[in-house]
Amino acid sequence: MMDHFAGSQPRPVAVHGGRCVLGPQETTYASIQVADGRVTRILSDLSSLSIASPDCAEIDLSGFLVMPGLVNAHDHLEFALYPRLARPPYRSYIDWGTDILSEFSDVIAKHRSIPKEVRLWWGGIRNLLCGVTTVSHHNPLWPELQREDFPVRVVEQYGWGHSLAFGGDLRVARAATPEGCAFIVHACEGVDEKAREELWELDRLGLLDERAVLVHGLAIDRSGVELMQQRRASLIVCPSSNDFLFGKLPDLSFLGDIDNVALGNDSPLTAEGDLLDEVRFAMRCCNLSSHTAYRMVTETPAAILRLREAEGTIRVSGRGDLMAVRDTNRDAADRLQMLSLHDVEFVMLGGCVQLASEKVYERLPLPVKKGMEPLWIDGTMRWLRAPVKELLSAAEEVLGVDGVCLGGRSIRIPARMEAGHVYSNSH
Q1: CA distances (Å), 368 to each of 6, 224, 291, 425, in order?
Q2: Distance CA 417, CA 117 (A)
Q3: How confident is the model at residue 420 (pLDDT cuts 50, 70, 90)?
Q4: What is the pLDDT of residues 196-229, one digit of tens each?
Q5: In this predicted structure, what is the pLDDT of residue 425?
Q6: What is the C-alpha to C-alpha distance for residues 241 and 205, in angstroms, rounded to an integer?
Q7: How far apart are CA 153 and CA 344, in angstroms?
Q8: Cβ distance 20 to 320 under 8 Å?
Q9: Sheet holding 132-137, edge to edge
Q10: How far apart are CA 67 and CA 299, in angstroms?
Q11: Which CATH number fits domain 71-304: 3.90.700.10, 3.60.15.10, 3.30.750.24, 3.20.20.140?
């Protein structure tokens, strides 16, 4: 499946006309050139909007705020098509896991019958739609996730265990982690004594150090924060999942004292939505400042995941990963708190345009449009560099026509595509 795209653009690309984000509250009008997957030049010079060489594809993003592609610190990509499954409230993730396997076994079996590669691709698309270019997948790194044409970049160098309860011997998993890479594990996910004790058990096992990345941490108290600081461990929080399952939010007034805290959107099994939905939820319910929220989905997760290619920033020699939204004359941090996937109109991954709104699609050079297909999601049309018609057909074979939802949102092929009137590249 998905032998589909010959069509990414290997030649250099120049993005010009937009306001470029250099930090949460720092922007400049700039032209950005990307070649061989990396930013080669950033010219803050309005008198020289074009920095392109003759073989360079130029993209006009006038009227847009150009931000770094977001970094999603925690997801389970194969669950993108699942509905929320729970009968809350629970005391711990153990109770939840046991309950859904018995109470929702038919739903789980039905979704599992969709080919795994199809489910993984929808997980990538779910991230792409909200401006994510790099995602940490908390499960085995399936070959499909390592394809060059996968919609987003999936972190490849890491170690992981599910949890103390469901992860087997975590010391074995830690020993198998590549040198210098993060070791990621669910921990303290709940409100009971067992959840609170997990942090100390990880420490007794020798697993709590500067490479340790704990996901959730809901039951961590102030003494636990002190231990995390001493061990220089990192934390990824997923507030909407915690609220849904346990009726409790992570207390970022003291969890924020941990050196590195990032935000992940978890899976649709428990989360409110995608990463942008999670940002808005965290700001609304956890009193998170816009500046902190911006860092938690850009530079901080890149540091936690030990990414070394300037992910989460726009820098010369860094990854050519960009997203763009309409410019409303606000800085990036303030703009982020109001964004949803409906606002993301352009995404570039390593210099290749992966997503475009209809407005931006009209501005793209003809060679850049090659390989892009339209998808309607929750009232918004987007052009994606993905075989969406094939993917939707495969999912509908199991879930039925009009039965497929992506992160709880309805999706379909636009009517003109369904009727066989395939959009031409000159549309």
Answers
A1: 12, 50, 34, 9
A2: 24
A3: very low
A4: 999 999 999 999 999 999 999 999 999 999 999 9
A5: 40
A6: 27
A7: 18
A8: no
A9: 70-75, 132-137, 153-154
A10: 12
A11: 3.20.20.140
For residue 231, give the H/E element and its range.
helix 222-231
CA distance 15 to 312: 18
- For residue 141, give both structure tokens: 């790194």
Q: Is the pTM of this model over 0.90?
A: yes
φ/ψ (deg, to 5) at 9: -95, 110
The residues with which 186 forms a beta bridge, in sequence order, are: 215
Which residues, in sequence order, are CB contacts of 236 under 8 Å at separation 6+?
73, 74, 184, 213, 214, 215, 216, 217, 261, 262, 263, 264, 301, 304
Q: Per-residue DSSP letters for 102-120?
A: HHSHHHHHHHHTS-HHHHH
Alpha helices in 130-178 (DSSP H): 170-175
Write out the H or E segment, with its range, that includes residue 274. none
Strand order in the sheet with 159-161: 159-161, 183-187, 212-216, 234-237, 261-263
Which residue is listed with tokens 């989905």?
297
Flag whether pLDDT at 424 surpasses 60: no
The residue assigned the tokens 């008198």 is: 47
Q: How far apart are CA 84 and CA 99, in angstroms?
A: 13
Cα Dmax for the chain: 65
**Which amino acid appears at position 409 of this protein?**
R
Length of the chain: 427
What is the token pair recorded at 151?
Answer: 């919609």
Structure tokens that stand for 355 in this block = 């997503």
Q: Are 174 and 207 in contact, with CB atoms under 8 Å apart? A: yes
Q: How many CA atoms lie within 13 A of 122 on its CB side?
A: 31
The amino acid present at 213, given as its one-letter code, is V
Give residues with Cβ within 8 angstroms of 8, minimum separation 6: 148, 149, 352, 371, 385
pLDDT tens digits, residue range 101-135? Answer: 999 999 999 999 999 999 999 999 999 999 999 99
CB 408 within 8 Å of CB 415: no
